[in-house]
Amino acid sequence: MFSPRTRTFLGFCVLGGLLSACSVTGGSNGQIILQNVGRIPGIAASGGEVIIDGQRSTLSALEGTPLGTNAAGNRLLIIGDSILSGTASRYGGAMCSALVPLGWRVAVEAEAGQMVGFGRTVLKDRIYEGWDAGVVFLGTNYGGNQEKYERDLTAIVEALAPRPTLLLTATLNRPTMQQVNETIRTVASKFSNVSVLDWGTTSIQPGLLNRDRVHPSDAGRKVLVASIASALGTAPVSPGACLSSKYTDDSLVTDDVLPGTTAPGQTIPMNTTTVPGVATTVPTAATTTVAPSATTTSAPR
Question: Is the whole model's pTM more than 0.85, yes or no?
């Protein structure tokens, strides 16, 4: 039986369709040594690092346990604002392209400009649909009331409990964002089912953010998705699927901060993934392309 960390790296190999090219051996002090590491589609991966367009970046550090280790099934609900909205199917489907091959059945409920209360709205509507794990990234649009933010985030985590849940920290683009990340870790410390992914630290690496210092660049989006995939690991069951989203209104943000669906003159080939009782289509990871993200500054996010 593989350890959780081994399963995570094997998941990357499966994601790239190169499981046969991967080998895992034990090292000292419980370390895992990987040889001929597989590739995330469009990204060269090695350990906790990825190389995108010749530039090496480190994946986000995971504080806690990979979600796939403790999930009872593979239905995954992802909740966020414009940063995760840009990974949804309507903008090229980067999240599904990364997670479906790992066996996850993924619904991305993310809308631009939403604050933390949006998570409570989504869960009130969809929590009873049989989810097995959750990912929440809601903190960039922070109203400055730390007590209210903690109350709303706690309600979100309580609604998802006891399901394995992943919270992402926010980019420290202004001083008050430190309150957001402090609150995220405070809330996480109270729940044994919650892990934290440190996107806040990862995002400040060169080339991962646009000029607004908030929204990820195309390279940053790939690192973000790869980091989430690493934090999830392989789902306990399969196959995966890209599930429909109910929340798709990005009108709160009028500036062009979200990625294009495709690069000019290119299309997204589609594959059909069938699961019992459900037929869905997901973008082919190796050939999906997105236009470069805009570099204008806007608020909300």
Answer: no
